[in-house]
Amino acid sequence: MKKALTDLKSFVTVSMIVLLFIIVIANLCGATLAENILILVTNLTTAVFTYYFTKKDGGEDEK
Q1: Residue 61 belongs to some domain of the structure
Q2: Nearest to 38 by CA among 29, 25, 50
Q3: DSSP string spanning 23-41?
Q4: Chain-centre distance of CA 35, in angstroms?
Q5: Looking at the domain assignment, is residue 58 inside a domain?
Q6: What's the pLDDT score for residue 43?
Q7: Torsion of CA 20, 41, 29, 5, to 10 degrees
Q8: Residue 50 DSSP SS3
Q9: Number of compact structural domains in the chain
Q10: Which tops the pLDDT comparison, 57 or 26?
């Protein structure tokens, strides 16, 4: 968790998980959220994870 404060990738990952967790818990507790918000946040989280975890770190070609 300490790394999340200095590394952008870790910060974005942790913040997206926290946001998704808050929305799901709020929905379970009876808050009336638009279904589109949950879909939007889920799609955004998936896009961020896909970008960061499939991104190559170096300039070396993989052979």
Answers
A1: no
A2: 25
A3: HHHHHHTT----HHHHHHH
A4: 18
A5: no
A6: 86
A7: 30
A8: helix
A9: 1
A10: 26
What pLDDT, on the 0 to 100 scale, is given for residue 61?
53
Residue the block writes with tokens 């989280």: 45
Q: What is the pLDDT of residues 1-56, one digit of tens each?
A: 566 667 777 787 788 888 888 888 887 887 777 777 778 888 888 888 787 778 66
The answer to whether residue 45 sits within a structural domain is yes
Torsion angles phi and psi, residue 34, rounded to 5 = -65, 140
Give the structural domain span for 14.
Answer: 3-25+35-53
pLDDT score at 44: 84
CA proximity to 52, closest of 7, 4, 13: 13
Q: Is residue 30 part of a domain?
A: no
String of b and e for 23-44 (b: at least 16 CB within 10 Å)? beeeeeeeeeeeeeeeeebeee
